[in-house]
Amino acid sequence: MTMNALRDFPTVWRVWLWLTALTLLAAFLADAHLTPGHLALAALSVAWLKGLAIVEHYMALRHAPAWLRLTVHGWLALVSAVLIFSFL
Amino acid sequence: MNQSVTLSASANPREVPGDLAMWFFILAELLVFGVFFLAYGYARAHDPATFVAGQRQLALGVPTVNTLLLIAGSASVSAAVRAFVLDRQRTARRLLWLTVALGMGFVVLKCGEFAGKFAAGITLSSDTFWMFYLSLTFFHFLHVILGMVIIGAVAVYARDGRYRPGQLAGVETAAAYWHMVDLVWVVLFALVYVAR
């Protein structure tokens, strides 16, 4: 982790800004008069994007063994996709 | 630590950040929350009217602020790990306590939200939506508290300078747990509060 952590140091705050912007976007979408299906698609897609950033940059799994990285990404993708499907 | 020397190393073996046992625990937690989420989706698909009626009673302001608090907590604990890497002990400890404080903000706001629901007569048996809302958010709430305890414990242990470059498994493990709590909330926020 040591070398990877140093290389990623400036990324921490950029990712924080990205996640903050996506959170505010999600809150905006909630009042955007979308159909339930479209709102669920938008909200859960935004959640998936936020999850990607958390997994890759904060959990630092982009530097982790592939099995661990794929398992967590697989969880996020499966949960997001099935939930979106449940709204359609 | 010589940062230029460290950064010049190009061949990094892929490493599990923190303790492998904690990662198995995190994967088990994700599995439990995943089943919970899918059960919510299944129940909602079979009775959308009940869920829509319940979700319309949820204000979006507090959960949005809570999301921002957890995200800021993830950023601060990530920065703490990197500060330990640079052997900036004092900065790292302050960032850990900042994470705990942000978690405390989440807990206070969440308690207010729960109190409002209980005052309105909402219980687990009110209907299917409120059963999921209360059980899912309270289960996550407990994880936030556990995350705060873990991060706080690491901050206390760090006072003796045990987390040095190359000896960061403890702090990385605590950070991984906090990020898991954040990751689950990101999905929960979208599912329960936004997707109405």
Task: Walk me through what this model shows.
Chain A has one domain. Chain A has four helices and no strands. Chain B has 196 residues and is mainly α. At the A-B interface, α1, α2, α3 and α4 of A face α1, α2, α4 and α7 of B.
* CATH domain topology of chain B: Four Helix Bundle (Hemerythrin (Met), subunit A)
- Percentage of residues in helical conformation of chain A: over 70%
Q: Tally the helices of chain A: what do you get?
A: 4
Largest interface: A-B, 55 and 56 residues
Give a count of the beta strands of chain B, DSSP E runs of length 2 or more.
0
Structural class of chain A: mainly alpha
Tags for this model:
heterodimer; A: 88 residues; mainly alpha; B: 196 residues; Four Helix Bundle (Hemerythrin (Met), subunit A); disordered N terminus; Cyt_c_oxidase_su3_a-hlx (chain B); transmembrane helix (chain B); Cyt_c_oxidase_su3-like_sf (chain B); cytochrome-c oxidase activity (chain B)
Give the secondary structure arrangement, pairings included.
The complex is a heterodimer of chains A (88) and B (196).
Chain A: H1 2-7, H2 11-30, H3 36-58, H4 66-87
Chain B: H1 3-8, H2 20-46, H3 48-55, H4 61-85, H5 89-119, H6 128-157, H7 169-194
Helix pairs in contact in B: 2-3, 2-6, 2-7, 4-5, 4-7, 5-6, 6-7
Domain Heme-copper oxidase subunit III family profile (chain B): 1-196
Transmembrane segments (chain B): 20-43, 64-85, 91-109, 130-156, 176-195
Family (chain B): Belongs to the cytochrome c oxidase subunit 3 family.
Brief characterization of the structure:
The complex is a heterodimer of chains A (88) and B (196). Chain A has one domain (2-87).
